[in-house]
Design brief:
- By secondary structure, this protein is of the alpha/beta class.
- The protein has a single domain, classed as Rossmann fold (3-Layer(aba) Sandwich).
- 32% of the residues lie in helices and 22% in strands.
- The protein has 11 helices and 12 strands.
- Helix 3 packs parallel to helix 5.
């Protein structure tokens, strides 16, 4: 990335209900102005790493509320929900169905896409040491990418927020080393996440921090007390740094966030509380 990065604040709102808290937060971020001028499709990328219910995965009610908001600002935009689950035992349609996304997508008239098997493009960056070559779905590269991760600690990456949520876009054909569909990322995982985001970062992020996973992304205690927050920003580094703080951790000790600071965004961003 060249040139000076524009600093973007992080916005947070105390959660009361999806239908009221989501539009309040997104209006405060100025997303309405971006959507009103947008001509690309919107690809919503939740975290459906497997078929476990929230807070391990992104609540379907949150994504439905985001769709309602987008349509209220630009009814002509085509909206797609895309994810590539990591389970070795089943494919992405399983979490789509078990977590209510199939039913919701039918009611909302939006398309569900399995990113694990979408047409890919080959990319290269000589500055990327972990992934000097990268394969990503064309649909991820060509459309407005709205990331909707969950606030979670991670047993290997320390946290899994919006930058790690991008691993769902990595096609298993290129990144399956055996034990998990994206298991090649486990080797030098911090650098692997950083390099992935050098090819593609989300255009906008809303983190579900209503409950939070305090110990791991798939098991363990919930955050106590629950943060009861929704957090959003156009800056993936800023939103991840703040999410790390909400988890009681220091972003400077999280490799992929530290490496991304000043390159893909600004970790030390203003945090605005939405009333």
């Amino acid at each position: 990335m060249s040139g000076r990065l524009i600093e973007q604040p992080v916005f947070k709102v105390n959660f009361t209900a999806w239908k009221t808290s989501v539009p309040k937060l997104l209006d405060a971020c100025g997303l309405d102005k971006v959507l009103s001028q947008l001509e690309k499709k919107v690809l919503i990328k939740p975290n459906l790493v497997e078929a476990s219910p929230p807070p391990i995965t992104t609540p379907v009610e949150l994504v439905s509320s985001i769709i309602d908001y987008i349509r209220s600002k630009n009814p002509s935009l085509e909206i797609i929900i895309g994810e590539g689950c990591g389970s070795i035992e089943y494919e992405t349609p399983t979490p789509f169905k078990q977590l209510g996304y199939v039913e919701m997508a039918y009611k909302q008239n939006v398309k569900l896409v399995d990113l694990n098997y979408e047409k890919t493009v080959s990319l290269s960056k000589k500055e990327c040491r972990r992934w000097p070559e990268m394969h990503l779905p064309e649909i991820v590269m060509d459309n407005f990418l709205f990331s909707v991760p969950v606030l979670k600690a991670h047993s290997m990456a320390d946290v899994t927020l919006t930058m790690k949520n991008m691993m769902g876009a990595a096609p298993p054909k290129h990144y399956n080393a055996g034990s998990w569909k994206k298991s090649a990322f486990h080797e030098r995982i911090q650098e692997a996440i950083f390099d992935l985001n050098r090819y593609r970062t989300p255009d906008f992020t809303l983190i579900d921090a209503t409950v939070g996973m305090a110990e791991s992304h798939l098991w363990g205690a919930h955050c106590e007390p629950p943060p009861n927050l929704l957090i959003a920003s156009f800056d993936p580094v800023a939103v991840d740094a703040y999410g790390t703080q909400v988890l009681g951790r220091d972003w400077r000790k999280i490799g992929h966030i530290k490496m991304s600071d000043g390159v893909l965004g600004h970790a030390e961003a203003e945090v605005v509380e939405v009333k």
